[in-house]
């Protein structure tokens, strides 16, 4: 059974394992890389605490970069899956070419803007005179690498969309393992500090770009990246953009909330509070990354089957994904509650920073088991082409609800109010998205009845 037939006919649970496990493994290795990367940075002698805080300052810019990277890739890969579901390979190849061209163009533009305005941007995002040297050293390398990072990420997503999730995961895992090797070499052996961590990351991004490009030009791919399709065509850019808007605003909102959070943290806790939030965020990502991997596998299955009008299979893929995500996050919640010092100790040995982070993690991650619905629900709507609905639901957790809460609650509770804002937003968001999914499932059931009558 080839990949296209499998997406249409194989058991949904089996498909979810086939497509999600490689993505989950890739995300878990990425999470391990992020953990070790920040642990290395935090252990730089004499400056570890400030270096971690400097890394925290870069998070808004990092997520803005990620917004373009992920959004265009998702817009392209989703349309590729839909076109393949419709049996239109030529259109899928044109989407692939336009996605590559768009990512390359945006990457070059980001590199140019970063070259001239990086310091100004970092000060806006919460840098101080003490933390900006570390933020600048790290982000100048990452920004420069955007011109090959973005198209490489898009092609890796397209590999999964065309039905080869194992290879996509293999590329990500290999890249992350290479990063784990390069980081300590550049940081400690070459004595390059936080800049060394960024150089290690950039080299691995280049490896992904070269490997993915080779696969779609000289490799055994179903789709081909053809020179005549590497262009910006209005028709395909519109298709990509409509789907891309949801993940773009989702990622952009994460950057915006990092900006707002950094400013509030600076008011109520100073530079070290920003470092504590970076630590808390890193710990949460250990358990959220597998859920993001699950969403990637789920997305291909839902998009293909919805394009093939097999609505029940799309619905079942979401239901199974939510059950698995909730289980993963519940396990994470229990482990964090039992061993907070162990998790925080990975990132810092500074007593003040450790105490701030332990207090933050006990409050900030209390809603961790509920987040699966908030992540996967919008991805479902995105995968079936309901871009506007998906965009609004994606913005709930990180913008529409969270920003008012984080601006009001700390005025009453101080620094604890900053930690408490995310759980409040998570619980309210979960309830709203749950209601939308129930309504959508009722609509899907009616569509299935209509199709049966026509049949």
TrEMBL record:
Primary subcellular site in the record, as a coarse category: membrane
Membrane topology term: Multi-pass membrane protein
InterPro entries: MATE_fam, MATE_MepA-like, MATE_MepA_subfamily, MdtK-like
CDD domains to which the protein is assigned, alphabetical: MATE_MepA_like
Subcellular location: Cell membrane
Similarity comment: Belongs to the multi antimicrobial extrusion (MATE) (TC 2.A.66.1) family. MepA subfamily.
The protein's name: Multidrug export protein MepA
Source organism of this protein record: Romboutsia weinsteinii
């Amino acid at each position: 059974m080839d990949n296209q037939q499998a997406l249409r006919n194989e058991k949904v649970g089996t498909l979810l394992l086939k497509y999600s496990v490689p993505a989950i493994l890739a995300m878990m290795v990425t999470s391990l890389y992020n953990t070790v990367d920040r642990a290395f940075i935090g252990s730089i002698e004499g400056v570890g605490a400030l270096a971690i805080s400097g890394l925290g300052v870069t998070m808004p810019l990092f997520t803005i970069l990620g917004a373009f990277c992920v959004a265009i890739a998702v817009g392209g890969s989703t349309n590729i899956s839909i076109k393949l579901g419709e049996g239109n390979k030529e259109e899928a190849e044109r989407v692939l070419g336009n996605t590559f061209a768009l990512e390359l163009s945006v990457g070059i533009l980001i590199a140019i803007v970063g070259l001239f305005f990086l310091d100004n941007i970092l000060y806006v995002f919460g840098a101080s005179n003490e933390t900006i040297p570390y933020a600048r050293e790290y982000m100048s390398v990452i920004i420069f690498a955007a011109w090959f990072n973005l198209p490489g990420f898009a092609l890796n997503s397209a590999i999964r969309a065309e039905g080869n999730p194992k290879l996509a995961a293999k590329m990500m895992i290999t890249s992350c393992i290479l990063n784990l090797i390069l980081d300590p070499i550049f940081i400690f052996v070459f004595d390059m500090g936080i800049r060394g961590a960024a150089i290690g990351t950039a080299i691995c991004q280049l490896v992904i770009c070269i490997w993915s490009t080779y696969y779609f030009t000289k490799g055994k791919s179903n789709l081909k990246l053809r020179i005549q399709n590497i262009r910006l065509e209005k028709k395909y850019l519109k298709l990509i953009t409509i789907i891309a808007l949801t993940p773009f605003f989702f990622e952009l909102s994460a950057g915006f909330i990092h900006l707002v959070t950094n400013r509030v943290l600076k008011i109520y806790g100073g530079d070290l509070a920003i470092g504590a939030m970076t630590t808390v965020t890193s710990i949460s990502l250990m358990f959220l990354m597998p859920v993001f991997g699950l969403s990637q596998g789920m997305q291909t299955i839902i998009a293909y089957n919805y394009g093939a009008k097999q609505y029940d299979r799309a619905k079942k893929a979401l239901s199974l994904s939510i059950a698995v995500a909730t289980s993963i996050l519940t396990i994470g919640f229990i482990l964090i509650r039992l061993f907070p010092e162990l998790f925080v100790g990975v990132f810092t040995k500074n007593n003040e920073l450790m105490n701030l982070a332990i207090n933050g993690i006990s409050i900030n991650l209390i809603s961790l088991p509920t987040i699966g619905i908030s992540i996967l629900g919008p991805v479902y709507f995105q995968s079936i082409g309901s871009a506007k609905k998906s965009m609004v639901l994606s913005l709930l957790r990180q913008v529409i609800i969270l920003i008012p809460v984080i601006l009001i609650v700390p005025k009453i509770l101080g620094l604890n109010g900053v930690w408490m804002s995310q759980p409040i937003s998570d619980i309210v968001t979960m309830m709203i998205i749950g209601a939308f999914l129930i309504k959508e499932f009722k609509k899907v059931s009616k569509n299935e009845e209509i199709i049966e009558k026509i049949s």
